[in-house]
Automatic annotation (TrEMBL):
Catalytic activity, as annotated: di-trans,octa-cis-undecaprenyl diphosphate + H2O = di-trans,octa-cis-undecaprenyl phosphate + phosphate + H(+)
Protein name: Undecaprenyl-diphosphatase
Its membrane topology: Multi-pass membrane protein
Enzyme type, top EC level: hydrolase
Function: Catalyzes the dephosphorylation of undecaprenyl diphosphate (UPP). Confers resistance to bacitracin.
Length: 282
């Protein structure tokens, strides 16, 4: 993998991770077009670094608004922290149950099966992208709410549960699904956006740890073959992390502007077109 490929993946990951268009589907398609294997340890290390960059972009971008919303007082912090915890528990419950169901139904409980084995399934990614697109378009038809404190514990749990559905399916945008669910539940647009990315900051470290552990487990002959490549990739991966951070900031600004201008449905239309592109490339 050369530096140009890393830079391309960093831009794709940084932008698509934070826009409601599914970063994983875009990254996987980009990898295929460049002839890269998304399952090798080098790619795992790179994606860990790129996820780290986008996580910091979210923290920097939303810090001021979160300070006003979540940290304005001890009571506000406790209330909003409880919502985040409830949503995260719902995400874990739904996500883990769905992963076990997929292992049982799709893999027949084959030992060593990883959900990453499904990453290359173009039809599955296309279907998930199309589903996200329809969800975004439908949610854009709900009347806009302007109040900023309209997120109940029940709504938080529903948003978290929908986030759990996104975990196994590459193409089913996490931000698109959670923000759309917020709209459907009557949550204000700015509030839904803030809460969706607050959940992302909680979820992303767990994803990073999981991917890092998967990289650590890649031992034996496979690790020996890739060890040199991993060491050579550390420096370029750091560059990729910085670039994904910058691309993430631009993407978040774009997302906020389109939410304010009532252009949320355009992201849904893009997901539908992207699903056709995935089928063509796959």
């Amino acid at each position: 993998m050369d530096l140009l490929q890393i830079l391309i993946l960093a831009i794709v990951q940084g932008a698509a991770e934070l826009l409601p268009v599914s970063s994983s589907a875009h990254v996987i398609v980009a990898e295929k077009l460049m002839g890269l294997d998304p399952t090798v340890p080098e790619m795992t290390l790179l994606l860990v670094m790129l996820h780290t960059g986008t996580m910091f972009a979210v923290i920097v971008y939303f810090w001021k608004s979160w300070h006003t919303t979540y940290f304005s007082s001890a009571q506000a912090f406790r209330t909003n922290a409880l919502r985040v915890v409830v949503a995260t528990i719902a995400t874990g419950a739904v996500g883990l149950a769905l992963l076990q169901l997929i292992k049982h139904v799709v893999a027949g409980n084959v030992p060593g099966f990883e959900i990453e084995h499904l990453f290359g399934n173009a039809r599955l990614m296309a279907a998930a992208l199309a589903a996200a697109g329809v969800l975004i378009i439908v949610s854009s038809r709900f009347p806009e709410r302007t109040d900023n404190d309209d997120l109940s514990l029940r709504s938080a749990a529903w948003i978290g549960a929908v986030q759990g559905l996104c975990l196994p399916f590459r193409g089913f945008s996490r931000s698109g699904a959670t923000i759309s669910t917020g709209f459907a539940l009557g949550v204000g647009r700015r509030r839904a956006e803030e809460f969706s990315f607050a959940l992302a900051v909680v979820l992303t470290p767990a994803v990073i740890v999981k991917e890092a552990y998967r990289l650590y487990q890649a031992q034996g002959a496979a690790m020996a073959v890739h060890a040199g490549g991993l060491m050579q990739l550390v420096g370029p991966s750091l560059i990729g992390m910085v670039l994904s951070f910058l691309a993430g900031l631009v993407a978040l600004r774009w997302l906020s502007r389109w939410l304010e201008q009532g252009r949320w449905h355009f992201f849904g239309a893009y997901c539908l077109l992207a699903s056709l592109a995935v089928l063509w490339v796959g």
